Every structure is written in C-alpha cells, then in structure tokens.
Amino acid sequence: MKWSEISIHTTTEAIEPISNILHEAGASGVVIEDPFELVREREDRFGEIYQLDPKDYPEEGVMVKAYLPINSFLGETVDEIKEAINNLILYNIDIGKNSVSLSEVHEEEWATAWKKYYHPVKISERFTIVPTWEEYTPVNSDELIIELDPGMAFGTGTHPTTVMSIQALERTVKKGDAVIDVGTGSGVLSIASAMLGAEKVRALDLDEVAVQSAKLNLKLNKVHDIVDVSQNNLLEGISETADVIVANILAEVILRFTEDAAKLVKPDGYFITAGIIQPKKEQVKESIEAAGFEIIETLQMEDWVAFIAKRK
Q1: 133 within a domain of the structure (yes/no)
Q2: pLDDT value of position 59
Q3: Residues in the chain with pLDDT values less than 50
Q4: Is residue 149 part of a domain?
Q5: Is CB count within 10 Å lower at the N or C end of the chain?
Q6: 175 and 42, same domain (yes or no)
C-alpha cells in the first residue's frame, strides 16, 4: 500500500487542535517535529544518550505530520483538513505559516522511518537498551545490554513505566528466582529478569503478535532457554508459584488480578506493578494491599507510578 505524508508547518499553540483534526481525518497517529527538542534540558538520571539531528526539525515553528492512505478520496480529505485548520483562526489560535505539503511514502519506508529516533539508552544502574540496528560499546564492565527490536506494535523499552519496572526488578530479583512477567509485550522485562539471574521466567501475553515479538527478542538476547513465553490471559490457569511477579500494563487491568497474584507469589516474594497513571495510584494501591501485599516502595517518573509490593 502507498501512503501520503501530510506535513503542516504551524505553531506550538496549534499542535493539539491540528493533531485532533488529523485524527478525525483518519490518521492513526501524528509526528511532531519541534526544534525545542534540540535544546530542551533533560534530567540526567542514568546518563541517557540523546542523538537528535537538527536537519530533522524546522528552523522555526513546528511540523505536524500524519500518514493517510492514497485512495480516490485523498484529495477531498486533504481539502477538509486545510479548511478545518484555517477555521482555527476563528478561535484565536495562531496557526503560523500554515503551509501544507504532501509526499508519497511506500509502506516499507513508513514502517521503518521511526527507527532514526531510537538510539542506545542507559535506563538504570546496570541496564542499557540498544536497538538491534545500532552498534554500542559497554561503558562499564558490569553493564547489562538488552538488544531490542520492538517492531511497530511495541515500545522501545525506554518508556517511564518500563524504566521503573526494570529498576524494580534490579531491587528484587535474586539469582535462582522464578519470575512471572504478565503482559510481556516485547519481552524486555523477562529478558532483564533472566540477565539478573532468574533461573526460570514465565512470560505471558494475550496478544499473539506480542508473543512472537517476545520470542524474537529472547533469542536476540540468548535467554530463550530461561524464558518460556506463551499466549495467556493474565494469570488465568497459572498454578506455578514465583518469587517475583511483574506487570507493566494498564491500571484497570492490574485491578483484575491482584488476588490471583497474591496466590502465586511466594511468602516474602514481590509483586511489581507499573503502567499506573497518577489518578489511578490510590485505587491500585488499595487493591494490592487488600490482596495481602505490603507496599515497600513507590517509584514515580513523569506522570507514571510503579509499586514494589511484598507478600506478607
């Protein structure tokens, strides 16, 4: 399939309304190219590596981009987008240059273009995540390197919820432990558990695409003999106990299986939960404690929260 990349040169003020217009026009996502990213100061927690190319950003204003399928209605869709953006003036929104351009993008190019924004990142005291297409030389002798090919459907391993989950695993996983990773996605938390010394890791995900992605990444990191990945709905049907259960998924989903986790975590074992947005913090905390766990540490990064809970 061929796609058309629509680029709108506008202002920071107009990013949100234009993004909404593009979503309503059928775009499943948008790309924001803001030159502010080149000079923005970032908190240096673990020596993260940021490699941004100024050539990818406009000299002034911002570029909002989206992808639309090339079909017989494309011309009408673009005209509707232009009209909707022009109407933003009626709401006193500065739309800046408001120049709109189109370019054709082949699906293969579109599916890999995002890779240029993904580079090695040190996310914790010991772990650095490296994309498979990048070369990286370890800085420290005890550094643990996770190679990741997340594909288009899964994260790069650098989202705050993943970072906090791995930090929590560093604090809890001991050599010889059994770990269950609920909602494994790309498999990054299972890989980290194995590298930390876990003897056996059970990785579970309801999505068959996630299972296949995880299997690929397990082999890339040579831990497929330690990690068993399979399709499963949360902890349904699981009877084996674990020293650590980790779940980096939505808060609403965590609430559904805290009691199941309590049945499977060994005495003095740990239940790590992430993917929790701030407004859901107390609700998840209460559910975990009601299931028989004690919250021993709360991690926070940006608008996200993770809990390390210990079975009483």
Answers
A1: no
A2: 63
A3: 37-42, 44-53, 152-153
A4: no
A5: N
A6: no
pTM over 0.85: no
Q: Are residues 199 and 105 in the same domain?
A: no
Q: Return the closest-CA partner of residue 249 out of 178, 156, 181, 174.
A: 181
- Give the per-residue pLDDT at 186: 86
CA distance 303 to 76: 39
Query: What are 131's strand-pairing partners?
Result: 148
Torsion of CA 255, 257, 258, 264, to 10 degrees: -170
Task: Output the pLDDT for position 137.
Answer: 86
* Residue 114 identity: W
Residue 187 belongs to domain with CATH number: 3.40.50.150
> Can you give the pLDDT at residue 115?
65
Q: Which domain holds residue 103?
A: 2-47+55-112
The tens digit of pLDDT for each residue in 128-154 reads: 988 888 888 888 888 999 998 755 445
Query: Could you tell me if 81 and 167 lie in one domain?
Result: no
Helices 208-220, 188-195: axis angle to 10 degrees equals: 30
Alpha-carbon distance of 242 to 200, in angstroms, equals: 9
Nearest alpha-carbon partner for 279 in 240, 259, 252: 252
268 within a domain of the structure (yes/no): yes
77 in a structural domain? yes
What's the CATH number where 40 sits?
Answer: 3.30.70.120
Q: DSSP string spanning 182-211?
A: ES-TTSHHHHHHHHTT-SEEEEEES-HHHH
Q: Where are the beta strands (DSSP E) in 110-252?
A: 121-122, 127-131, 144-148, 178-182, 200-205, 227-231, 242-248
DSSP codes joined into one string, 280-303:
GHHHHHHHHHHTTEEEEEEEEETT
